[in-house]
Amino acid sequence: MSSSSRPRSILVHVDTEIDPRGHDGLARATRLALAADARLTLADVVPDVPAYVRRLLPGGPHLVQLLREERAGRLDLLARRARRAGVATDVLTLEGSAVVAIVREVVRGGHDLLVVRQGRDAGDATSALGLHLVRKAPCPVWLLPPPRADGAAARRPRRPRVLAAIDVAAADEPPTPEHRASAALAAQVLEAAAALAELQQGELHALHALHAWTAYGETPLQRRAIGGVSRADVAQYVARVEAVAREALRAAVAPLGARLRPECVHLVKGYADEVVPAFAEARGVDTVVIGTVARSGVAGLLVGNTAERVLETACGAVLVVKPDGFVSPVRAAPGEVAGAARAARTVAGPAA
C-alpha cells in the first residue's frame, strides 16, 4: 500500500496446508479491497520437492504439478467468497522458497500491499515467514495475528482503531540525513494509518513514544546530584524534553488536519517496544502502523531493533511501512518480471 494513496493491488499469502479454509487476513483483505476498489490476489507456495523424492518415488517428477493443482483448487474455493463480494480476484500458485517466491511476485505483479498471517508461536515457520517478508518485501506488509488456540474469532472494536506509532525529531535539531529520513518515514506512517482507518471506517490514533520522549540521563540524575545539578534542575530539564517532544509531535501530525482528532494524539513517556504494545492492548487497537528502515547499508538485512521488538510483543495486527527507496535483497529471476516464471495464475471471472 502506497503511503500516499489507497492500495490498488493486494497480495494475500495463504498456506492452504495450514489454513485450507483461509484465515482472518483474507476476510480483512477482501473488505479492504472492496473499499479501495483494489484487485486481490491469493497466493500459495509449493515447497521444492527434495531430490530423493524425485529419485525414489514413482512419478516423483510429477508431484510438484499435483501439489500445485491441489493448492490452486483450494485457493479457487477461497477466491469465490471475495468474488461474490464484488472483488476482482486472482489465484496464484508459486514454487520454491516461500520468502523468495512471494517477494518476487510482489515485484512482478506490482502489488502495493502484502497480507500475511502470523503463527501462534514466535519460533514457528509461519511467524518466521512473516518476519522475513517484513525484512525483504519492497511493499508494506500487514501482519495479522494468529488464530486463537480455542479456534474462536478474535474480538475487535466495532470501529477498528488504527494506531500510528512514530518517532520524530525536534525541529531545532540539526537537519542530519538521519533526521530527515525519520521525518519522512513518520509522514509515511501517518498517511498509511490514516488511509487504513478511512478505508475501514475506523478511528485513527497517533502515538509518539520513541526515544525522543525519554529524557537522557534522567535516572542517574534523580539518584544523585551531578556537578551541582539540583532535583529542581532535573525536573525542569525533563519538562523541557517533554515540551520539545510534544511540539515535534504536533508538527508531525499537522498535515493530517481534521483526519486526526486532537484527543487521539498521544505523547507517552517510555520506549516503543514497551509502550506501543501496552497502549494498543489497553485501547483495543486493531492495527499498529510502524515504519522500518534497513541498517548498515545492507538492503533488507535488518528491520531495526525497535520495530522488531514491537512486532514480537504486539498482540494485534501490525502494518509495517517501508521508506521510499527501500531496496529488497531478493532479485527477480530471469524473465520473471516480463512473464510469470514458475507461477500458475487463474484470473477471476464473474462470481459463480
Which tags fit this structure?
2 domains; alpha/beta; Rossmann fold; 352 residues; 10 helices; disordered C terminus; 11 strands; elongated; 39% helix
Description:
With 352 residues, the protein is an alpha/beta fold. The protein has 2 domains: 9-154 and 329-346, HUPs (Rossmann fold, 3-Layer(aba) Sandwich), CATH 3.40.50; 161-315, Rossmann fold. The chain is 39% helix and 16% strand. The chain has 10 helices and 11 strands. The protein has helices spanning 24-36, 51-56, 63-84, 98-109, 125-136, 177-199, 218-223, 231-253, 272-283, 305-313; strands at 9-13, 39-46, 89-95, 113-117, 141-144, 161-166, 203-208, 265-267, 287-291, 317-321, 344-346.
Give a quick summary of the entry.
The protein is α/β, with parallel strands linked by helices and 352 residues long. It folds into two domains: 9-154 and 329-346, Rossmann fold; 161-315, HUPs (Rossmann fold, 3-Layer(aba) Sandwich).
Largest beta-sheet details: 11 strands, mixed
Distance between the termini: 29 Å
Q: Report the uncertain regions.
A: 295-302, 337-343, 346-352
- For the record, the CATH class of the largest domain is Alpha Beta
What string, H for helix and E for strand, traces the elements in order?
Answer: EHEHHEHEHEEHEHHEHEHEE
* Number of DSSP helical runs: 10
Radius of gyration, taken over Cα atoms and rounded to an integer in Å: 22 Å
Provide the domain count.
2
In one word, what is the shape? elongated
- In the CATH hierarchy, the architecture of the largest domain is 3-Layer(aba) Sandwich
Query: What is the strand tally?
Result: 11
Side-by-side strand order of the widest sheet:
8-7-6-9-10-5-4-1-2-3-11
Give the integer mean of the pLDDT values: 79
Structural class: alpha/beta
The name CATH uses for the topology of the largest domain is Rossmann fold
Helix content: 25-40%
**CATH-defined superfamily of the largest domain:** HUPs
Roughly what fraction of the amino acids lie in strands? 15-25%
